[in-house]
Amino acid sequence: xxxxxxxxxxxxxxxxxxxxxxxxxxxxxxxxxFVVDVGASNSRFGFxxxxxxxxxxxxxxxxxxxxxxxxxxFNAFAQQIGEAVCKRIVAATLNLPGPVxxxxxxxxxxxxxxxxxxxxxxxxxxxxxxxPPHHTVMLNDLEACAYGVVATHHFKIxxxxxxxxxxxxxxxxxxxAQGLSTGNCVVVAPGTGLxxxxxxxxxxxxxxxxxxxxxxxxxxQSETDRKFVDAYKSDLKRGDYAPEYDDICSGRxxxxxxxxxxxxxxxxxxxKATAKEISDLARNDDPVAVEALALYxxxxxxxxxxxxxxxxxxxxxxxxxxxxxxxxFYERKGAVDTMKQQMLDHSCERYGFMSKPxxxxxxxxxxxxxxxxxxxxEGAARKESKL
Amino acid sequence: xxxxxxxxxxxxxxxxxxxxxxxxxxxxxxxxxFVVDVGASNSRFGFxxxxxxxxxxxxxxxxxxxxxxxxxxFNAFAQQIGEAVCKRIVAATLNLPGPVxxxxxxxxxxxxxxxxxxxxxxxxxxxxxxxPPHHTVMLNDLEACAYGVVATHHFKIxxxxxxxxxxxxxxxxxxxAQGLSTGNCVVVAPGTGLxxxxxxxxxxxxxxxxxxxxxxxxxxQSETDRKFVDAYKSDLKRGDYAPEYDDICSGRxxxxxxxxxxxxxxxxxxxKATAKEISDLARNDDPVAVEALALYxxxxxxxxxxxxxxxxxxxxxxxxxxxxxxxxFYERKGAVDTMKQQMLDHSCERYGFMSKPxxxxxxxxxxxxxxxxxxxxEGAARKESKL
Lengths: 387, 387
Prior knowledge:
- Two copies of one chain form a homodimer.
- Chain A is of the alpha/beta class.
- The first copy, chain A, has two domains: 2-133, ATPase, nucleotide binding domain (Nucleotidyltransferase, domain 5, 2-Layer Sandwich); 215-362, Hexokinase, domain 1 (3-Layer(aba) Sandwich), CATH 3.40.367.
- Chain A contains 15 helices and 15 strands.
- In chain A, β11 and β12 (194-202) form a beta hairpin.
- In chain A, α5 crosses α15 (368-382), α9 (251-264) crosses α11 and α11 (287-311) runs parallel beside α14.
- Chains A and B meet through β12, β13 and α11 of A and β12, β13 and α11 of B.
């Protein structure tokens, strides 16, 4: 996979004048795909094409945090790249951080505003010059990420992106991180929130499909960490509702865990630290930060445990930049053994269900969402949508 | 749908000599499908064919409760129907009560024995005369049931089998129970255990696929019913593990709830009653039985609530003979309003997520599993499996 952030000037050069880029009108006889990764504060607009058997993606970063600004950015981008390039687009796929139903996506929780007009994106609001009608797909961000995982398998670059934490019993070779297995794969991405999607394996046809999920919002179930859960529940002021895993296995969750560990050790909870600072502290062996990160992973394993019985997967893949950054944590003595114990800590382990899946982690940076969008474009170029 | 239990003699007559049956060699020019519903104590072996645009299924009941006896029953059945009929089978689909991975199904929990040989069914153990290689599919029971729901939609008989409990906000007309929606549908079947599967709607292609699940084994999460949960947890003797929804929303769960309500009212818990007896008592307004059934539905709504955020479905379908039997309960004054309140009782209702799906219930008896097997056979007849 050859994927790179460029400036708009560089992108225009690649698309039109460049003699070597697979995106250029001078070399590109195959399809041109428009791929978009909408984030909470930064979005990425890119183009993708096959360079031989390789995937080639170039994208620009756009900072927007409202639907109005996002749509304006789409229109400005269409003008910048020009009509001739637009005419070469055969399919488009965009992904956004919120539930998607057909041609309607959102609410995008970090976007400004409170009305649905301000938080929800409609496919119909996008310029047709960039997003060809009947050949444009809107995905949830984790759905795109999961298609990205399928794409790494398809393009035989899986082992460049993933590495093993432990091998499961159902199909141990899956633990070698050489590719997807002949079974389901749960994709888990702890970031601003906790994203989850499943790659479903269809045994009869041998095909993979993706199902986007919002299981990050499952209510936390814990018989043993009641003190933290109850304290957090009281902070969240949502009545008698338990926190959601998304409240804990996320940036703000790590911050809350850090404050909890501090106060448990008798320190004042007014010593606040950001998720980034806590991660840096943990890297430097700060015991409070290490314990907070360990608790964060304990709850992550707890929700994985529920997904392990729910989907009976062969594989879990922990994804995202945080997971790549946290390499040092997974390499700490005993950290992975503890995570595995926590994963197995479920009543269904009496049947061995928690031991079945292998656990992998993303080990190299790379925008899996854009790769997933590219993969979906290949299908959308061939078929007309029913939308 | 024309589906009926018959004797083996009647079945043989229909398959060979009958002048009118769509299954008969005298009339059947289209494909003959072998469909099997493996249950915990009774299994159903049947044949299916299209009678014009209608589905036609005839099956015999076989009482077996071990893998050895089941395989013997397959072989005996092949002999009874004879070689000429076997040669007309173009595809076979069977479903069984346990997780299925490709060509391996089980453990079947109610089956005798403790070794995997005694509890697990392999496709390769079945007679090829009944189950054509590369055209035979093995499904989980709820997966078959969910395909049955898709089939009722496909064959335009959905409204004969399902009726509305309430309409959701996302696509209110789905609440009219006229068919599947352009969104996911969660199929929930409380029986011997708690079965769950999802019909996934693919917006781009307009197609439905099914994903089998084991979310019935999710650990019970409850901030408000701790007394019952803790008492049950102690009974189950699984250490510090909470009960699973499968332990509560099932026959044995209803029995445990009844004992709990009795003891709460100061009666001795030694007054035991079977699930069937409790249901009959509730039908006759016995207050303890009614309260037990109400609690059973409270936990059912609780797990539906977690599925509602997880899958963001348009529809829930409560399925199975118990649901059809419990019609009187759903028609009790206030029962459905209470269930809806319980469904909405989740932190994500702050975004309106719990209000989105419509809730339907099965209102007429009919073996949806066999119908689902028939539906899957239509695909398996056309394609070769990768198994």
